[in-house]
Design a protein that fits this description.
This protein is of the alpha+beta class. It is built from 9 helices and 5 strands. A hairpin with a 4-residue loop joins strand 1 and strand 2.
């Protein structure tokens, strides 16, 4: 009987630890990194309709390569957890990933250079140029912080995912695609994160909080 009670107590403690807000966020990001998007949203997100922003359906090989590299390079660190009230906690996470905006900028700059170079016979396609940059060991990266709101539900703690959360996880892909004319907007980049480029692209740097104005998909 004593062993049974101890076993039940250990089970309760295990379940309790597994449902901590920071644990829920970690498991969500781990599943995203492993491209288990449907499972990530089903198991750890309360507003599952937001999954559409991460729906993995590729129209071409370039899109597929982009997402594969974003998931492959995704790194994170739980910074802190703050309890807002009895049912809500905010988990602050530091996210490091490929800087999509800088990748696109480098690609267009290289293509323009090739196009207007005198006597150049380089006919590198945009797809090949993109592949060369994003597969490079010096691919530009940036580090940001984002807050995940975790709420208690009848099924345990769940994340109220936001467009900002997903945008930061994907290296600012969403805002870059929505604002293609701002590839040269360095001021905004300095406000929203720490840019890493060249040989030091893998070094850890202190992040700044992103400022994203994106209320839709």
């Amino acid at each position: 009987m004593k062993k049974l009670l101890i076993g039940i107590l250990l089970l309760i403690l295990t379940v309790s630890c597994g449902s901590k807000p920071e644990t829920v966020v970690s498991k969500f990001i781990d599943n995203v990194k492993e491209k288990k998007i449907e499972k990530a949203f089903k198991d750890y997100v309360v507003n599952q309709d937001a999954e559409g922003n991460m729906h993995l359906e590729y129209n071409n090989k370039t899109q597929q390569l982009l997402f594969e590299k974003l998931f492959e390079n995704l790194e994170y660190k739980i910074v802190k957890t703050e309890k807002q009230d009895a049912n809500t906690s905010v988990v602050t996470v530091e996210i490091k990933n490929i800087d999509v905006k800088k990748v696109f900028k480098k690609m267009f700059e290289k293509m323009l250079q090739d196009t207007f170079s005198n006597g150049s016979s380089n006919n590198t396609s945009s797809e090949d140029e993109f592949k060369s940059i994003i597969e490079s060991k010096n691919v530009p990266k940036s580090t940001y912080t984002t807050d995940f709101v975790v709420v208690k539900t009848e099924n345990g703690n769940k994340i109220e995912i936001t467009p900002e959360n997903m945008d930061v996880l994907l290296g600012k892909l969403i805002t870059t695609l929505q604002n293609p004319g701002n590839l040269d907007d360095n001021e905004q980049e300095q406000q929203t994160g720490v840019s890493e480029d060249g040989p030091n692209a893998g070094d850890t740097q202190k992040p700044n909080e992103p400022k994203i104005e994106n209320n839709g998909k």
